[in-house]
Queue: 2 jobs
Job 1
Amino acid sequence: MQNASNAPTEAAFEVNRVSKRYGSIVALDDVSLSFPRGSTTALIGSSGSGKSTLLRLLLGLEWPDRGEVKVDGHVLEKAQVLALRRRTGYVIQDGGLFPHLTALGNLGLLPYHLGWSRDRIRSRAEELAALTDLAQDVLERYPAELSGGQRQRVALMRGLMLNPDALLLDEPLGALDPIVRHELQDQLKSIFDQLGKTVIVVTHDVAEAAWLADRLVLMRNGKVVQDGRLEDLQQRPVDPFVTHFVQAQRTLQRPSA
Amino acid sequence: MKRWIVLALACLAISPVWSAAPVRIGSKAFTESVILGEVARLAARQAGVAAEHKRELGGTSILWSALQHGDIDAYPEYTGTITHELLKNLAPDADIPTLRAALKPLGIGITDSLGFNDTYAIGMREDRAAQLGISRISDLLPHPDLRLGLSNEFMDRSDGWPGLRQRYGLPQTQVRGLDHALSYRALASNAVDAIDLYSTDAEIPYYHLRTLDDDRHYFPHYDAIFLYRLSLEQSSPEFVKALQALSGRIGEDAMRQMNAMVKLHGEKETVVAAAFLGVQPDSDGASFWSRLLQRTVEHLRLVLVSLIAAVLLAVPLGVFAARSRRLGQIVMALTGVLQTIPSLAMFVFMIPLFGIGTWPAVAALFLYSLLPIVRNTYTGLVGIPPDLRESAAALGLPRGVRLRRVELPMALRSILAGVKTAAVINVGTATLGALIGAGGYGQPIVTGIRLDDIGLILEGAIPAALMALAVQGLFEGIEHWLTPRGMRLEARQ
């Protein structure tokens, strides 16, 4: 992302008119979006709206049928995918931790391959444990021995090991109970603020999206419905669906008789 | 990684050790052939030629192809077998000079007759034959209900049952294939009414059998001779001379006597052969334990060499099958087909490629081991949850590293289970290796069946069963040792 010298671009990621289908199911339908460097964006929408597919296109885990994906202003090619993934942290719903490795083993997998010493891996892991508020002794445990919240913290740490430019999170808190979820929302917010990275987070929870990100992109059936701030979605909905989706999130109240 | 190196070294330590071979004499898996093999070996020793006897190498086809390929240098054969089975364009009653001329282009020599004719005959219990008034083969015609128990070889060969039935027009339909060594038992216990036998069999007087007169002269002459490789005339002329000196020395009575000493009185073939030649038998120094040790080493070698080779090929094949599912299905179908080949047939198929001894047995076991390992590698890899597979990709690990550090470790349990299955099957199947000269626990089993000696059969069967259990236990230990602790834990909810 250090190509500021020639053709400076503000966008870390960009998709232009991308479409993607799986058999007869349309996952993305002519979507164009740009993600400025250092911005935090939440992709919201129901399941099947195409938000996860969009995230996967940005990492080269999927390729569009039509349209182009640009990273740092350059069209993404297969040859650059490994390098791109290494400077982009990716966290999925269940953490995606490898069960045969300890938490530390999971954290060290890629750095070790890249030639880091064990000491360097451990000290970086301890640094990140402090950042995510994870107890040190948890590093020696296997994923099966971790709580849901611990697993997601380790997954986030794994995404941050190489100090990447960007973080892509796909329902990172989706599998957690409400208390842990609330606590981690606070932590994620503070981590995003501290690190100032480009962040794209997929969620179906509007409150969580609004808490974590300034910009909300609402998707439906593979298309972008509205792209803006929470206030825009609430006060200037482009479509009745926007209002419907935003209001479907229940606030704390008793059902009236 | 270190664990794998230790494992590999342990395997190397038991890998085969070869030594230069003296003159090799083969024999078929029946007593007379084994005795003649011992006679030849001792006669060679008497003449100052180092010789070894590869005993009980299955049937004619195995010996004949081993002789032609030079895996053995000589073996006892019968003239009738040569004209009917081996050189099919000869008259069935061709004499030995004719055979000699016909064998010469193949590089095979033949001695003169050793002095006896061991032809096929049909035998019945004396009491039963008398009761039915049967003394000639044609007397069987009015008794279509008689049950025949025929040795498998006799059933199949052109000079055996098919021709006999045709010549006499025999009407019997209840014809069962039996191992020759078991057929006397079957006859004695009235499980069958008539069997094929050899005219020098020791059991004929012992079981009070009547040999039926071959009144239509169907059975050809089966004069005993030795076949040998003509190249021996240059490389070991003393040995050829010693073989030829046996001609005319063994009469029918002498042979029946020797057969009886082994089969009915439990003497060792080598002792009987030595007594016949008037020489001292080798001091049979091998104690039970040293025999057991030797067979264990032979057996383990068969199992381990074939298993290691199979792992080296089958795991990559399984990885390939998991990557490219369509081609993978073809790979698995092919290894599945290999699995359906009957084991004895598989061993025999390997002889033209690898000769006799350890290697064809290793090759056959290797082929049998492929399927369980390929299949379990495939299953293990395909069973990895897609989100974990994608997590590894999303980290930015190259394919090879993903395979080595994530996918194979996660599939390891399944792969090891496949290797264990293959190993346990191999321990059992390897006992058949004795029939093609591979030794191992099958050796006493083959001899025990031939001599109808349960003790001897158990001497092979019990260690084989124990080894199968030990292999099973060993692999469970290895599995526990190599499986990362994290894979054994149940996920916390």
Job 2
Amino acid sequence: MGHDRGATISVQTAYDLGAVWYEDRMSEDWVPPTPAQAEEVFSHFDLTGEFWRLP
Amino acid sequence: MAGRCGDQGCLRERHWVVEGCFGAFSYTRQVNAFDRSVRAAVFEHLVAGWPGPTPGDIAERTGHPTEAVAESFQRLAAEHRLVLTPEGDRVMMAHPFSGVPTDYRSEIGDRRWWANCGWDAFAILALLGDGEVRARSEEGIESTWTIRNGVVRPDGLVHFVVPARRFWDDIGFT
């Protein structure tokens, strides 16, 4: 598929990140995060670098 | 998929790994109030059970005309707020939930939900409460993680294949 090796996170980080990432996703008032907001969430979990960068 | 990863560069052998994906979002324009209410009803449906709703399911739940809901599904899909099946007849993904069977399942007691990927399976329990995540490998081997008071056991890794900036290139693969 031409994809690179990718990135890994622990299952605990996956759970904790999911709690933040999806916190208000089911709400009628949910607004998608901007790239800057999304990268801020990633960086809170030390997910930085090119793989986690958004356009 | 789930299983022991053969990529020595990114995983240690003792770890079990499941695939991750990015919970869909986009920074496109806002959707209207009707579509937002339909989207919320889709989540209510998916939290209550499986499979993903058809326009008729949401029409029954909300009292809206089926045709109006079907049109709303199309707009929501175009705005990346949900993903429809290839036939377009029901919701296939409303992240973190999957409307169709996958290799990833979240369970709380006798309640269960399908997830789009390993990360989503953990995320569903982060939203709904303590339980078990089950992932099945291509060989049919099932792995289970237990979450109690927000602590996941045993250790393991989620492997993200597609970079964040490209996840909507092929959301099914992601």
